[in-house]
Description:
By secondary structure, the chain is α/β, with parallel strands linked by helices. The protein has helices at 13-18, 30-47, 61-71, 85-96, 114-124, 145-154, 203-212, 221-231, 240-256, 258-279, 306-317, 344-360, 367-380, and strands at 2-3, 52-57, 77-82, 100-105, 129-133, 135-136, 141-142, 158-162, 181-185, 196-201, 282-283, 296-299, 319-320, 332-335.
Amino acid sequence: xxxxxxxxxxxxxxxxxxxxxxxxxxxxxxxxxxxxxxxxxxxxxxxxxxxxxxxxxxxxxxxxxxxxxxxxxxxxxxxxxxxxxxxxxxxxxxxxxxxxxxxxxxxxxxxxxxxxxxxxxxxxxxxxxxxxxxxxxxxxxxxxxxxxxxxxxxxxxxxxxxxxxxxxxxxxxxxxxxxxxxxxxxxxxxxxxxxxxxxxxxxxxxxxxxxxxxxxxxxxxxxxxxxxxxxxxxxxxxxxxxxxxxxxxxxxxxxxxxxxxxxxxxxxxxxxxxxxxxxxxxxxxxxxxxxxxxxxxxxxxxxxxxxxxxxxxxxxxxxxxxxxxxxxxxxxxxxxxxxxxxxxxxxxxxxxxxxxxxxxxxxxxxxxxxxxxxxxxxxxxx
Length: 382
């Protein structure tokens, strides 16, 4: 089975092999602390930050909730920028912890406007925390993080960013772009197994967190501050084998070089989009420039059951792709070309299988034209 979904991705054998290492005792073995520090330094290089790094046991969405719990006071207004399913999820977290969302909302096929963010902050005047999803995987869009980060920094707003599906696949400059809390998942562009969340935390964010002094233990970031950063002791027994895998995945990415990684993602994404257009299908984002280089979202053609398409593709051709979530369920199918999936050979295998499957379902598949369009990008450009 070739898994071509926008996370979890396929995992390289080298990363899987790292999990065979005999587990250390993370609470008593001093060398494990040294290993963990080395992993955090690799993550700083990937995320382009000198801030504190936390790798916690639990999927990345736990990091989104931990950020809101730790930063947002009950009754405090929070600017929630939403262009999709996960942006709406931030709103739910803010409400759950007593915050008051002030929404900057656009349609799911659109991206957030930095100018509208600036207007909203100026209009409200007293917002101190903002949330943003960089890559909305259900929609296949990429929000303009650099420009939004600049606006938030100019307005002295702590910016929390879900970069789960972007870090390691497209450029993200945490410090340079004014991101105060950046949340990443092990199972996306880093192509490690699921189960770990990664957070970078700026000095400004720590100041707000200490002022908030939230309740709770596992999700409270002050637990990490008080235990790990001050005493050098983990607040709970860590997921040792998953950390070994993540460390190896980070090593592979850094060995390839970040610019080479971004070029690979850019090339594969462009090839996927050219295939979509040549096939006579339609990209879901309203403008191609809004598309992420880590996932391609395609509108299901009228009269074609996308769930049935995915089922046949899996059962007959051995390829798994994704549908979408929320109000996009049944309307969109997605190709996850992130991390280890962003390989020309894998993409072409998926596109050929998808072309044949569409033909099986009596869609007027332009297999030759579409495959040629993708190959032209992969082997005759850049």
